[in-house]
Amino acid sequence: MNLQFLADGLVDGAILALGAIGVTLTYANLRFANFAHGEFISWGAYLTMALATIIGMFTGWIPEGFGPFSVGGGWLLCALVAAIGTGALALALDALLFRRLRARATAISSVMASFGVSLSLRALLELLFTSRPRYYSDDLQIAVPLGLDLRATPDQLAVLCAAILITVGVGLLLSHTQLGRKMRAVSENPTLAAVVGIDVAAVIRATWLLGAVLASLSGVAVGMLVQIRPSMGSELLLPLFAAAILGGIGSVPGAAIGAVIIGVAEAATVRFIGGEWRAAVSLVVLIVVLLIRPRGLFGSRP
């Protein structure tokens, strides 16, 4: 039996993992489902492309691949700057809107506001870049054999390795740093955290920043492997939430494992059933988890 869907699913899961970690951290610390999170993926991808284009206009620099990869160091630098820019966008949205809602309204108000922000950010991307798909590179990569009849392109392997390193890094940040301990304390009980002297507002800002940076890198990974569109973030939103809930809200390893499960399940559906059913996988997983194990695989008991 051809097991290529496993390799494809792992790569898709790696991309979802970066976004799902941001979703689980945001939900755990801010106590609402942020529907604008998917747009951070789109904005990170487009900001990277825009930076590379602007630099090329003024310097004559043409982004080229490095070795067997379709992108090089210049693209990676643009991706890091774009991630910081996406984080700044998230902080601005929090300062202008969500912080005021946290103080004066209920969580459902923040959810509805995030939906409106999502539509606005997507419309602004379409205004700036049109809805036409864009590509980071026109290079055609040849998949290399991995054994067991599995194949992957160099870009896919790079994305997979980068996602693993970033996931491990975020896990170490949360478990071995002062900031991580404060974030876990706020996720458990923000009122008690404030009583013991933790700056809850600063932790919330750090959560927005970290989630947006991870989402931006996820968007760059999508651009490396396929194409970018203004709607790409909203299309990934359901799989991101399904992965976060499957893994357990607040669990970074759980979000990563949930993302891999979703990615492999979608790839298997495309392989054995048909591509038109791919979008239904996340919804089915989400419903089953909520009915059978609402806390997810690694979530704590309520």
Explained architecture:
The chain has 302 residues and is an all-alpha fold. It has a single domain (4-292), classed as Orthogonal Bundle (ABC transporter involved in vitamin B12 uptake, BtuC), CATH 1.10.3470. The chain contains 11 helices and 2 strands; from the N terminus they run H-H-H-H-E-E-H-H-H-H-H-H-H. The chain has helices spanning 4-30, 37-59, 73-104, 107-129, 154-176, 178-188, 190-195, 200-225, 232-247, 252-272, 278-292, and strands at 144-147, 150-152. Strands 1-2 form a two-stranded antiparallel ribbon. Helix 2 (37-59) packs antiparallel against helix 3 (73-104) and helix 2 crosses helix 9. The termini are far apart. The mean pLDDT is 86.
Summarize the SSE layout with pairings.
Elements (H helix, E strand, L loop, with lengths): L3 H27 L6 H23 L13 H32 L2 H23 L14 E4 L2 E3 L1 H23 L1 H11 L1 H6 L4 H26 L6 H16 L4 H21 L5 H15 L10
Antiparallel strand pairs: 1-2
Helix pairs in contact: 1-5, 1-6, 1-8, 1-9, 1-10, 2-3, 2-4, 2-8, 2-9, 3-4, 3-8, 5-6, 6-8, 9-10, 9-11, 10-11
